[in-house]
Amino acid sequence: MNLLLLLTIFPILSALPLMLPIKAFDCRKTVWSYALLSTLVTFVFSLVAAFKFDFANSGQMQFVDSVRWVESFGLTFGFGIDSISLWLVLLTTFLMPIIILGSLTAVNMRIREFYFWLIVLETFMIGTFVATDIIFFYVCFELTLVPLYILIGVFGSDNRLRAAKIFFLYTFTGSMLTFAGVMYVAYINVVNTGIWSFDIQTLYVAAATMSGTEQAWVLGALLAGFAVKVPLFPVHTWLPLAHTEAPTAGSVILAGVLLKLGTYGLLRFALPMCPEAVVEYAWLIGVFAVLGVLVTALICWVQTDVKKLIAYSSVSHLGFCVLGLFALDADDTGAVGSVMYMINHGLSTGALFLCVGMIYERFHTRDMAKMSGLGRVIPVWATFTVFFVLASVGLPGLNGFVGEVLTLIGAFLSPTQVLGYEYAAFAGIGMILAAIYLLYMVGKVIFGPVLVPEVHTDDGGHELKDLNTREIATLLPLAAGCLILGMLPNGMLVSLKAPVSQLTAPARFVANTNPLDTDTASIEPGLRLVLDAPGSAPGLTPDISSGIDLAINQSTPTETADRAAER
Amino acid sequence: MEQYLEYALYIASVLGALSLALMLPKEKRGLRFVGPLIGAASVGGLWLFLSSDSFWDGRGTGMASWTFLYYYIFSGIAVASAVRVITHTRPVYAALWFVMVVLASAGLFLILSAQFMAFAVVIIYGGAILVTYMFVIMLASQSDPSEQNNQAYERVAKEPVMASAAGFLLLAVLLSVSFDYDALEAARAPVDPASTDAALIESTLQDRPLKIETLYVTNEAGEPVPAESVAPPANLDPTRLANAERIGLDLFQSHPLGLELAGVILLVSLVGAVVIAKTKVPDEQHAVSG
Amino acid sequence: MPETVMDSLTLSHFLMTGAVLFCLGLIGFITRRNLIIMFLCTEMMFQGVAVSLVAFSRFHLNDTGQTFVIFVLTIAAAEAALALGLVVLLFRRKRTLDALVWSQLSG
Amino acid sequence: MPIELIKLIPWIPLLGAALCGICCMKPAWRKAAGPISVLSIFIPFLITCGVYSAASGLQGDDKIQTIYQWMGVGNFTVNMGYYVDSLTMVMLFVITGIGSLIATYAMGYMKGERGYARFFMGVSLFIFAMTTLVMADNLVLIYLGWEGVGLCSYLLIGYYYDKPEAVAAAKKAFIVNRIGDLGFALGIFLTYKAYGSVSLHTVVDKAIEFLNDPNYTATTADLWIPFLLMLGAFGKSAQIPLYVWLPDAMAGPTPVSALVHAATMVTAGVYMIARLIPVFQLSPYALPTVAAVGGVTALFAGTIALCQYDLKKVFAYSTVSQLGYMFLGVGALSTFGGIFHLFTHAFFKALLFLTAGSVMHALAGQLDLRAMSGLRHKMPVTCWLMFAGCLALAGFPFTAGFFSKDTILAETLIVGMEGNGLFTLLALIGLLTAFLTAFYTFRLWFRVFMGPEHFEMGDDHGHGGDDSHDDHGHAHEPHEMPWWPMNAPLAVLAFGAIFGGLIFSGWMSGSIETSTANPIAIHAVDTHAQTDPGYSIIQVASDTSGHGSEADAAHGDEHHTLMGMDVHTAMMLISGFIALLGIGCAAYFHWLNRPLTDEIAKKFGVVVEVLYNKYYVDEFYDAVIVKPLRMLGHGFFLFDQFVINGLVITVGYLPRLVGWSVQPTQSGKMQGYGLGMVLGVAVAALLVFKWAF
Fold first, then answer.
1. Rounded to an integer, what distance in angstroms lies between the CA atom of residue C31 and that of residue D671?
2. Which residues of D118-153 are buried (b: 16+ CB within 10 A; e: fewer)?
3. Residues B73 and B205 occupy one common structural domain
4. What is the ipTM of this complex?
């Protein structure tokens, strides 16, 4: 059995017994242990996949396989991973046991359902990352909404129904348009080749025949779904609400993995499929990303609810991520940094949500005005929180810095008709603001004179206890991850370089061959055009003279059709 | 004349709708008698129009002979009874008129040499289902039999004009479709009933050759034998299969899944009926009144 | 006898009868307020369809039409069982057969 | 000792920090944190001494000691590697040497504090970051150290984190530093864009190449890079306009003020500019700006220091002022002067802070000058140790501060005499500041130790309530500090403060010459020279740069003279005189005739008030930057809540509106639905059969 297939379906299979009438699962500890075991096994599978992964060819899809679905329509459950997917899958499987470890006492009712939906969610998240068939991707992308909808709507706090509804409708509406965009590309493929196919590589080839206007529309459609998911600045309002109402586990998954689906989608689909439109509209996306960074950072500063503050900070941080994605600088510093940022943000913000959750479990409030000087009373918690705050602020040596500096360098070096140094400079102000609002939070909650709200413990006591071993075990791996990725990020960066440059190659090509900007027009001799790669073998190496002919912006549909026919 | 066919159909539909709207039960019964007249007029007019020579010029014939008379009789009864079903103010009579509809359509089935269906319809509809209906009507009707027609919902139809218009709009469309020339051309039937039957049977066997090995898996002694060794029985003369036999063949050979599903549906409805019958409901009418 | 169209039966004749039965049943379903009669009218629509199906079977030289009628009968029987059960249930509840009484689904 | 050992230098303190962190966990282990930390700083000092000879012999690529690659995307590679040249060694000596002394002192000073282990963890971590900063072989690694020291500064200022002012000060320090860091980061990006690398040696070599290329014209990037980097330096080294955090940072424990906010961290800006001096030379406006900001800051902070009553605040402003001197020095292309002053300043300012700490310790946290007087009998050792420091700070002839300050002033004046009025002005400002420095330094000393004996105890009882610490009863009466571990390190520092200038001057200038901090003389006259007034400064300045390097071929032929003497000699006389004048004034006003001082102060009440309130700069920043930003935050939040979210909700209501408008069709009556269905089927049939096909 293919390892990826196993990895994908194992969680959902292992979740099924939770819904069977098994007496043992009525006990909180049993069901918790079972869920923990299940996610740990998944994590081990993913580690095995990582060990078997051939990092020398990290740009190639590996473990490729597909399961038939609707053959007449070209639908398959096609899967495979390159290193981008691999790291994101690892992030997912790494976070899941931690989340479950942290939720032992967080949920008090419908415990079985809670873990069931968590584990089911894992399957869909992994499915999204491993899919090489765009419909498979889309199905998983949408199905992640269902478990989270239930997690928020059933296990959330007071205003949970409204939050769940807005979360679901908002993201779902956006993704519908994304689906339309995807279908349009598939339709183009049918027009060109006469065969229905939803294989991503095939669609890349099909998308290359689109005109600039078509690309702009497809880009718009893709953005509609992915930008909401990210969330990019003007369409972010669902996120703070969802975060504040979601249970801790939901928040961690939401911030840790689900937001990454948006940026992953942009990288995997928008950049390679609509290169011209990306180059043309990158400035607009960049402006929104920078606005998002700054505006939401300022909003963070005036929050009184710790969790809302961190939720808004996610919006601010993801602005960097998007900025890096659309930088298109010659070395892909921005895009590689952006992928790095996804992982880093998943670790540090996820950890911050866990920390907030631990506080909420103790005090049943998250109001900053009601607590102060907690560093004195629960020092271990305070130490961890400060650590993750620093990681989130982007302190060099911790993980946040690597992604931040790479995305900013990317934006700084980006060709002038894409982004430019102004974007980096303004986004850089976000780094200052991040320090301001996070340290403001630390100053209010952890430092200052001691003020402890009323304490609620499980056994009805009122004694404030510092983190227990389980909670420390929850946070410790995350802290280790932050430190390791901060000090030794290079292996990851090197492995990301190849797949990321394949994905950004078309857009970089357009950006660097624009006659308006001859200064920066430099084509690497080894520039690989994914577009001309027929399916499996990714990348011809066109020399520069003939490379122009193959350039996407000059190829007409008939040419591509001819090429398709030759094949 | 052909070009006027559609208009004729539409006019007839409009007239039919008008007549039905008049006939449907309502508080003021003054013009009710006009309804049947208009209806008869429209049907008659249409018939006259269609039976004029020039219209049907040279376009093949269906079943010659006098069967067409039976057709007119039976369909006339069916339509008239159907009108009565929907216009009668008392459920019991409506149900009885429906029996007439069933009987008349059974007659039509006989014309169409579907003897089995004719009997099946009479037995199932006229027998089983209608009896159930009568039973429920008795069960649910007012306890005092003298209290006739005093229920407003029996006496007054809801939106008769709109309903008739809509219904006859649909009818007009259906009719104009079914009088499509091309369709008629294709539907021309052979004249000789016997040859019709033979052709029918032959096509049955050609399209779906009998799967001997599945039909006859045992020999005379009742022991299973290999399928290849069995010759088709000499007495299996396709032309001599009766209507019921052919339906049986078709049903079991071509629609086994449908058959199974039908069985499941019947089972489910059985269970459902039991559940419904056992459901205890509050008597809101009585709870409110007393 | 002159061979006019109305003398020799064609498929259209039977389709016409079927359509008339169907539409009358439909009108009945819409206009009548007695639940039982409404269901009776649906049975009449079935009847119209059955006529059409048998006619098709005959004129297309194909038995499947008649087979379908068997299925229709099956559904009609099931429907009668369930629908009448429900009618009785509803009647027990409100002591009336008026369909207009039941309008909880009003938007 | 093999040179490879130098790679260990940053990691030993990091290990020490980790061990201290472990010590935090159990109260019994906490006592071990101090020695561990001291060892973790002292061992690198020993290594520095050991590898010194090997390190000074390094040539070319051997200077780069790489451990591993930290980041690498395409062309952008950042190594975890060190660049070892004489400047690095000088800085390492300062950091590890003075760091060990201060840490030793802190073992005594912090004894019994509840966050003892936490404190030493911060100190060790700081040394890790600081050594990384000065050893880094590339800009990004410098940035790591840069932010790392900022973090440690944050943690250590916020050491007393239940005091709101300490928390606010810590936050302010970090955020103001971050503003500078943004400039630094953008400078790094621009450097990478312009030079294609972030490695120091590549960047510096290329810059030198450009400087030596007569046909090279400065690009826009060349003009901008120094200004962006400068912003970082101003933030870290507390220069106008980003100096505001440093005085507040005194809320931290005194050893921290000495180590982080006087001796080492705040000099990082000077180090960085000195290290990248060729890059700064490429822009004709950069170094004059640095010099001007340094000079103005020196005077500005000096005036504020005049009227402060808080012991540590005086020294804090003095630090800002002295840092201004250093910037003046590097701005006048005298990197030797700048680094030399950095070196001597580290000794005497650390000494001053620590002695101030002793006073504070003795008076139970009392820091107000008005609440103490004539303590020389109570604490004689401290008194004379601080006296040594004060002499050096005031620039008393032949103390360490005297030499270094003199070098800076003389070099500035030389540039000024080359025809640049700005630098003449700055030299005069420097002299004025020298007078102020001498005055306020001794104002403090005379106030504290001379005059009638009088003191009020502070309200800080035993620094966090460790009973064992109270046994010598300082809550009742001031007392002298024990020799070990407190006064002994101070004695070493005092020795350095007095004799450091004499001893190390030659060594220092040699070290600077052989490092990248040595300014490059420009041989060819660029086209800018005719048009840019600023450019000629640089050229001239570079021609005359390098004290003690007369033999340098790049040096100008002509020597300037002042009062018939060599400028340096003349400046020594002038500044020595000024220092004595300042001390004399201070003695008169603050020792011998205090009532007169009070009268004068009353007369100039407004001035004193303004100075006491630090020119209201904090209030100004608060009103102009902080409050509007926060208002903006509130505004954006409302905008987000109501406008953006409102739009979304409105859009969400559209379907509901449609539903509401067609709601009447859903009457709940079966017949209605049936009718609709029939009409629908009829229309559909019409469409399908009659019209469409």
1. 7
2. bbbbbbbbbbbbbbbbbbbbbbbbbbbbbbbbbbbb
3. no
4. 0.74
For residue D565, the surrounding DSSP H or E stretch is strand D565-566
| Min distance B192 CA to chain C CA atoms (Å) | 12
Nearest to B250 among C63, C74, C84 (CB): C63
List, for residues D427-474, the tens digit of each pLDDT value: 889 989 999 999 988 888 888 888 888 888 777 654 444 434 444 444
User: How many Å apart are CA A234 and CA A218, to the nearest integer?
Assistant: 20
DSSP state of B159: S
Which chains contact B through at least 3 pairs of Cβ atoms less than 8 Å apart? C, D
3-state helix, strand, coil in chain A (%, to 5): 75, 5, 20
pLDDT value of position A546: 38
Region D235-264: what's the mean pLDDT? 87
- Mean pLDDT for chain A overall: 85
Q: Which chain C residues are Cβ-neighbours of B166 within 8 angstroms?
A: 27, 30
**Chain B positions in Cβ-Cβ contact with residue C97 (cut-off 8 Å):** 140, 151, 153
Closest partner residue to A409 (CB to CB) among D76, D162, D178 is D76
Tokens of A563: 């090429």
- Give the closest residue to D297 by CA, choosing from D268, D331, D327, D274: D327
For residue D590, which of D480, D457, D452, D458 has the smallest C-alpha distance? Answer: D452
The pLDDT of residue B199 = 54
Whether the CB of D689 is below 8 Å from some CB of chain B: the reply is yes
DSSP designation for D98: I
Are B202 and B147 in a shared domain?
Answer: no
Determine the residue of chain B that is closest to D674 in CA distance: B163
Distance CA D526, CA D520 (A): 14
Q: Which of C99, C106, C107 sits opposite D671 (nearest CB)?
A: C99
Number of folded domains in chain B?
2
CA D417 to chain centre: 31
Residues of chain D numbered 667-686 and touching chain C (CB < 8 Å): 667-671, 674-675, 678
Whether A113 contacts chain D with CB within 8 A: no
Q: Do the chains contact at D670 and C99, CB–CB below 8 Å?
A: yes
What's the rounded Cα separation, in Å, for the pair B187 and B63?
Answer: 12
pLDDT higher for D639 or B141? D639
Q: Measured between CB atoms, which of B167, B258, B279 is closest to C71?
A: B258
Residues B176, D690: C-beta atoms closer than 8 Å = yes
How big is the B-C interface in CB pairs under 8 Å?
A: 303
Please tell me whether residues B9 and B118 are part of one structural domain: yes
The minimum CA-CA distance between B186 and chain C, rounded to whole Å, is 9
Residue after which a domain boundary falls, among B186, B211, B246? B186
The per-residue pLDDT for range D608-634, each reduced to its tens digit, is 888 888 888 888 888 888 888 889 889
Least confident of A158-172, B259-273, D132-146, D558-572: D558-572
Residue B176 lies in a domain: yes
**Mean pLDDT, rounded, for A49-68:** 87
Q: Which fold has domain C11-101?
A: Helix Hairpins (1.10.287)
Buried/exposed code over D363-374 (b: 16+ C-beta within 10 A; e: otherwise): bbebbebeebbb
DSSP letter for each residue of D259-300: IIIIISGGGHHHHHHHHTHHHHHHSTTHHHHHHHHHHHHHHH
Q: Could you list the residue range(s) of the whole structural domain that residue B226 is in? A: 193-281
Would you list the domain boundaries of chain C? Answer: 11-101
Q: Which chains does C contact via 3+ CB–CB distances below 8 A?
A: B, D
- Largest interatomic CA distance in chain A: 77
Q: pTM to 2 decimals?
A: 0.80
Task: List, as one string, the DSSP characters of A178-210.
Answer: HHHHHHHHHHHHHHHHSS---BHHHHHHHHTT-
Q: Parallel, antiparallel, or unpaired: how do β-strands A75-81 and D64-73 relate?
A: unpaired
- Where along chain D do its domains lie? 285-457+484-602, 619-692
- State the pLDDT confidence band at A328, using cuts at 50, 70 and 90: confident
